[in-house]
Amino acid sequence: MELNEVVTDVVDLSPPLKRLLLDGDAKVELELPISLLNINISKNTKIIVNIDKNKDDNYKEKYTVYMWGILYHKGGESIYISIGGLILKINKDLPFNIGDKLYIGLKIIS
DSSP of 27-72, one letter per residue? Predict the structure, then answer.
C-alpha cells in the first residue's frame, strides 16, 4: 500500500524524537529520531510511505528509511503500528489486521 504524503508539520518531542504530521492519500502521524537517522525532513517535504506485509529485499535501493512494526490497534478508519515503541498512526482503512507484522518504507522525494 503506497501513500503519497506531504509533511504539514514537524513537532518536537523528547530529543531526539520528532512527530511528523503528513497529509495526502491519508492523514499520517509518525514518530522518528530524525537527527539520529541523519536525514532532513521539514514542512512541505514530499514522502512516499509504503506499507507491506512482505519484506522488500531491495529496500536499501528504494527507501530512505526502512523499518518494521506490529499493527496493535485498528478502529474506525485509524490504524496504529508500533515500530519498536515509536508510533505510526494512519487515518485510513487499510487491509491489515491486528497483530500483522508490517514493513514500512519511507522515500523522501523533496
Answer: EEEEEE-HHHHT----TT-EEEEEEESS--TTHHHH-SEEEEEEEE
Which of the residue ranges 7-11, 87-91, 92-96, 101-105 would you say has the lowest mean pLDDT? 92-96
pTM of the predicted model as reported, rounded to 2 decimal places:
0.94
φ/ψ of 3, rounded to 5, equals: -120, 125
Q: Which domains does the chain have, with CATH numbers?
A: 2-108 (2.40.50.140)
Measured between alpha carbons, how far is residue 108 from residues 77, 98, 102 in Å? 25, 28, 19
> Is the omega angle on the peptide bond into residue 15 within 30 degrees of 0, that is, cis?
no
Distance CA 62, CA 60 (A): 6
Give residue 4's pLDDT. Answer: 98
What is the per-residue pLDDT for 76? 85
**pLDDT (tens digit, 9 = 90+) per residue, 84-99?**
999 999 999 899 999 9
